[in-house]
């Protein structure tokens, strides 16, 4: 069993549906996508949601975290190789977009099966500087303030020190991961369709910076804007999942009945 997927996720994924591998944002874990299967089903999606669990958080809390993007992608590529033999789509939000694209690009480089599509939200293309949520040497208070302003920490949890003490080391390491050398170049675009989502009021990543992924798209690129800021996937979850469900139906293995 791959460390990046739970046993139940793998078992549930054995169906005629396309697999939707979901990569978390900085500081996040697989639980960020815990409600997606039910909600996407309600919107008529034909995908099996498989949340990716990175080391050093939630069920993998005792494992060392990666701070080097290339090392993480090497490990994921090896661990997920068997699961990626089945028809699948990658989805990543913010840091997850960087990871999803980098994994797809790495697999393209070695001739492995590619996703049917890659869906990316709230992140800049790899030829641009990584978005900086906070200075690397920011204090805990400054980092909490920056994350809360973006919507990365729900207000209800700001007064829970145990939660914050567990979150901050993960967030710091994830921010280091994002500042590493990009995996790909615009001269070697990804040979699968790219679907991009941008928050209209995102103060960290602008719509034009999301659109810049077009330079890396070798099989077409579609851009959709969403209400809300950087974490529109939470603040406007139902609206976003309705859009995502419609998108994934384009890649359904079994045609949707009229």
From TrEMBL:
It comes from Streptomyces coeruleofuscus. Residues 19-244 form the Thioesterase domain. The keyword Chaperone does not apply. One of its GO terms (molecular function) is hydrolase activity. Belongs to the thioesterase family. Pfam families: Thioesterase. Keywords: Hydrolase. This is Alpha/beta fold hydrolase. InterPro entries: AB_hydrolase_fold, TEII, Thioesterase.
């Amino acid at each position: 069993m791959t460390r990046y997927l739970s046993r139940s996720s793998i078992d549930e994924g054995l169906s005629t549906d396309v697999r939707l591998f979901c990569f978390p944002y900085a500081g996040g874990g697989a639980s960020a996508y815990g409600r997606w299967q039910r909600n996407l089903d309600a919107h008529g999606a034909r995908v099996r949601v498989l949340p990716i669990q990175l080391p050093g958080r939630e069920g993998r809390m005792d494992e060392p975290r990666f701070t080097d993007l290339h090392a993480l992608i090497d490990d994921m590529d090896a661990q997920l190789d068997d699961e990626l033999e089945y028809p699948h789509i990658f989805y990543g939000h913010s840091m997850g977009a960087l990871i999803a694209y980098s994994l797809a690009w790495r697999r393209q480089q070695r001739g492995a099966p590619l996703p049917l599509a890659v869906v990316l939200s709230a992140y800049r293309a790899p030829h641009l500087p990584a978005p900086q949520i906070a200075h690397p040497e920011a204090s805990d208070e400054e980092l909490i303030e920056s994350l809360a302003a973006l919507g990365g920490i729900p207000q209800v949890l700001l007064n829970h020190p145990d939660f914050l003490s567990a979150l901050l080391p993960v967030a710091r390491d994830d921010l280091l991961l994002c500042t590493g050398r990009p995996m790909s170049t615009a001269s070697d675009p990804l040979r699968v369709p790219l679907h991009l989502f941008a928050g209209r009021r995102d103060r960290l990543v602008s719509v034009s910076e999301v659109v810049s992924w077009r330079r890396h798209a070798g099989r077409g690129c579609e851009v959709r804007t969403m209400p809300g800021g950087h974490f529109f996937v939470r603040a406007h979850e139902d609206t976003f999942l309705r859009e995502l469900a419609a998108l994934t139906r384009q890649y359904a293995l079994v045609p949707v009945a009229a």
